Fold this protein.
Amino acid sequence: MSASVSAKEALLGVISFSPQSGYSIKAEMESGGVSYIWDLSFGSIYPRLKDLEREGLITAVEVRDEGRVRTVYDLTHQGWSSLRRWLAEKPSYPLPLRDELLLRMLFWGTARPDDRQTLIGHLRDRAAKTRELLDRLRTPLDENGATDEFQGLIEEYARMRLKAELEWIDKTITQLQGAPRPPLRDPRGIFPKATERRHAAARAAGKEAGPS
Amino acid sequence: MSASVSAKEALLGVISFSPQSGYSIKAEMESGGVSYIWDLSFGSIYPRLKDLEREGLITAVEVRDEGRVRTVYDLTHQGWSSLRRWLAEKPSYPLPLRDELLLRMLFWGTARPDDRQTLIGHLRDRAAKTRELLDRLRTPLDENGATDEFQGLIEEYARMRLKAELEWIDKTITQLQGAPRPPLRDPRGIFPKATERRHAAARAAGKEAGPS
DNA sequence: TCGCTCATGTAATGCGTTACATGATTGG
DNA sequence: CCAATCATGTAACGCATTACATGAGCGA
């Protein structure tokens, strides 16, 4: 139902800010406002730009700028309408928490029940990186960076999200430093069973290896 | 540096909860606790399970359960250790806001400056889906669902995130219903320039088409 | 018996990353 | 002059999705 994003839309969008080369698009993806929301590697940027040019959505101009030569792309009329149409399309709902740390945490109780320290380490690393991002958000690297009303709202969202995450991490670490707590709900006893299954698998493997 | 997730880890994790078939794994991915964090289609589940079996990380047992035949997988000792090792690996930091709605919003000012209503529609749709999720989180579909300490912490995180998102959407819609605001920062005047570029492209295209 | 859910699978396809290759320019 | 940055590109590869195919039980 709802449409997804291919690299092309992101490229059109970034170029809509100002005419740009593939190289500078990559820079924006790494440190500009887009960097919080999307990313692309050179391996997709350059071929996709060629595609967009062939499709007539952007035009290329070779620019000799202080010795250096860059290929600067700008939107054509078709490019602008294409971007406009895409913006109107219903965005697809994202996996709300797609996150490797949370995925690991989800399985922690079955596979690493007693090792709470490693998880605390993961959480601390996460908090450090998140704090970095928050700082960057407060004092953007790029003093030429522009922010319109919409981007301002997004920045507000980002600040809120990141701060909330830090608070949650704090509370979580505090709890993890305390004593392990029993399951909140376990009608079928799967958690004790998991422990048992793990032990059984270990015994079976030990037996198979045979007594040395 | 930090390792990423392939389907295999997620599969090992889900099986760690209890021995399962490919079909029931898919069900968990769609409505269980994992559904907030990860997803997989049949197209990856079945082939990956075969791989894991060949690698000796899981074992398959044909189960005749009330007429129906299912292939139930469980972790081997090697599967458990493999899962254990993966949990210890440092998770990679995710794009903090990877989100199609936010990506569109980022470009709104350059390409759809005056159409605030469509964006409000996007935001309302988002809020509706998010409210659904929040409800599901409060009253899980699966009455047999189990929640251990770690999963409880994740649920807390999810609740916090979703509630915060709803609040932000409310505030944002309110602001968008008001008058447009000028850019917060625009040292190089890129936003007025973008409007001008868009108009110029339209004029050029009109001219090219020729006067009718 | 007809359609739905359960259940498993495969082939084509899409899409993006990684790794590699190349070369000009600039600053120390 | 040498290393880093600017700048553009391509080929191989990984990995997951989509679409398709198949078949057995179940409930009306």
Summary: Chain B touches chain A through 102 residues (CB under 8 Å). The longest strand of chain B covers residues 58-65. Chain B has a mean pLDDT of 94.
